Amino acid sequence: MHADLIVCGLGPAGRAVAHRALAAGRSVTVIDPHPDRVWTPTYAAWADELPGWLDSGVIAATVDAPTAWAVREHRIQRRYQVLDTPALQRSLTLDGAHVLAEPAVEVGEETVTTASGLRLRGRVVDARGLARAPGRAEQTAYGVVVDRAVLDPGQPVLFMDWRRDNGTGPDEPPSFLYAVPLGPDTMLLEETCLAGRPALTPEVLRVRLEHRLRARGIVRTGTEPVERVRFPVQGGRPGGGRFGAAGALTHPATGYSVAAALSGADTVAAGHPLWTAEARAVLALRRAGLRALLALPPAEVPVFFEVFFGLPADRQHAYLSGTDLPGLTAAMRGVFAAVPPRLRRTVVTSVLGLTGR
User: Considering the domain boundaries, does residue 165 fall inside one?
Assistant: First the structure.
């Protein structure tokens, strides 16, 4: 059995590349044991990361300048968009694809064998995601969806809030509050461990979130929808037909991958290389940045982000998005120059991989 493109895995990355290949007139076979499973996570992106072909109806909320709290308050001068997850899934139609509802058990770059023994030939995109594994840093979160009427009308949209009104002390592993609108009437309030090895458990984050909400006078009914998050931010490998989290599109410092997958879907669908030499160099530097973050003493994490959010907007952009190697290098130099001297040795040894992690 042959197809122009064989896509293994129908999460956002796999569905996006299959959708764009079909739009370009290619024959596509998709393989997933549960092709109709409903997506439930909350996805968001910087507006300038999203491709022009994406249906505007998948945008649930737009924030012109979200707030970040490190040591002080910062406004991020960049438009941020929260996606309507069901609408996103519906928009990535698979009309015309041949769908196999079974696992892919042997996956190469040009052949796939399914659990039933079916062997397929064609160009393969492996978008089956990235499994948790010992030693891989993870991002975890626990969140609740609340009616915006229970919030202070002046409640800012919080991209990242490191203030410690979550009941923790300075020597405990830190977590931050992520507070974004899901639409005109609801807000997601989520306590997040950005990256940990091991990461904080969702149960620990639940306790911290409840403490934080009480401290801020936010009253819950106890019936609010809950979101739990746990996924690796390490372990993906570029190339080899891998795409999405498996293909190293998860940003090591933020955990974001959906926008990168959407914006890269046309390139991969057309068979063009996604991982240029510059893109690989950028990935290596961002992974070095993750090592530095993991090595920081807990009390110093907000200090590190205070420096980061004090960078010029273009340097923040280069670190958070895209493959601008000179911009990313300038951002990392800027952070190193501005962090307190007590942190520089930690940053240098971890970036150079001298910490044994």
Answer: yes
Positions of E strands within 162-261: 176-181, 186-196, 226-232
Q: What percentage of the chain carries pLDDT values higher than 70?
A: 99
Cβ–Cβ under 8 Å, residues 94 and 21: no
Enter the pTM of the model. Answer: 0.94
Tokens found for residue 250: 């998860």
Task: Report how far residue 326's alpha carbon sits from residue 338's, in angstroms, rounded to the nearest whole number.
Answer: 18
Q: What is the pLDDT of residues 293-312, one digit of tens each?
A: 999 999 999 999 999 999 99
Q: Which uninterrupted H or E stretch holds 79?
A: none
Distance CA 243, CA 314 (A): 27
| Contact criterion met (CB below 8 Å) for 168 and 175 | yes
Mean of pLDDT over the chain: 95
Residue numbers of the domain that contains 215: 138-232
Give the Cα separation of 339 and 347 in Å (integer).
9
pLDDT band at 356 (very low <50, low <70, confident <90, very high): very low
CA distances from 103 to 69, 120, 123, 267 (A): 44, 13, 18, 25
User: Is residue 240 in some structural domain?
Assistant: yes
Q: Is the Cα dihedral 239, 245, 248, 249 positive or negative?
A: positive
Structure tokens that stand for 330 in this block: 């300038």
pLDDT at site 357: 46
Give the residue-averaged pLDDT of 144-168: 92
Domains identified in the chain, total number: 3
Q: What DSSP letter does each residue of 239-282 carry, written as one string?
A: STTB-GGGGT-S-TTT---HHHHHHHHHHHHTT--S--HHHHHH
Judge if 163 and 240 occupy the same domain.
no
Helix (H, G, I), strand (E, B) or coil at 330: helix
